[in-house]
Amino acid sequence: MNIWITGCNGFLGTSLARHLVANQHDVTALSTEECAAASQSVTIDLTAQDSPRVIEKLAAPEVVVHAYSKEPGPGELLDFVDANSSSR
User: Fold this and answer.
1) Residue of 56, 61, 57 lying closest to 27 (CA atoms)
2) Fold of the domain spanning 2-85
3) pLDDT one-digit tens code per residue, 3-44
4) Do 82 and 75 contact (CB within 8 A), yes or no?
5) In sequence order, what are the residues at sequence separation of 6 or more whose Cβ sits closer than 8 angstroms to the Cβ of residue 7?
6) pLDDT, tens digit, 9 for 90 and up, residues 35-71
7) What sign has the CA pseudo-torsion 58, 3, 70, 34?
8) Cα 45–60–40 angle (5° rounding)?
9) What predicted TM-score, i.e. pTM, was given to this entire model?
10) Alpha carbons 57 and 24: distance in angstroms, whole number
11) Tally of CB atoms within 10 A around 66
12) Any idea where the domains of the chain sit in the sequence?
């Protein structure tokens, strides 16, 4: 199965990518940094204007897992809710 994971470098994304690759799935990481756990890693800022051109060159996924989230640290609860639920 062809699976895309956004935010693949985080705890959840990396763990999921390792599990899926170990179970013979083709995992494409879409992240601002390379993700060694995936079958293929695409370094991309999904908010950048050229991101649609980069994405359309990839094989279409059967599943997309959105694992991007705001990292723990300073901030109010609403900062995390906004960052983790918006279309970044």
Assistant:
1) 61
2) Rossmann fold (3.40.50)
3) 999 988 888 889 999 999 999 999 999 988 999 999 999 999
4) no
5) 13, 31, 66, 67, 68, 69
6) 999 999 999 988 889 999 999 999 999 999 988 776 6
7) negative
8) 60
9) 0.78
10) 23
11) 15
12) 2-85
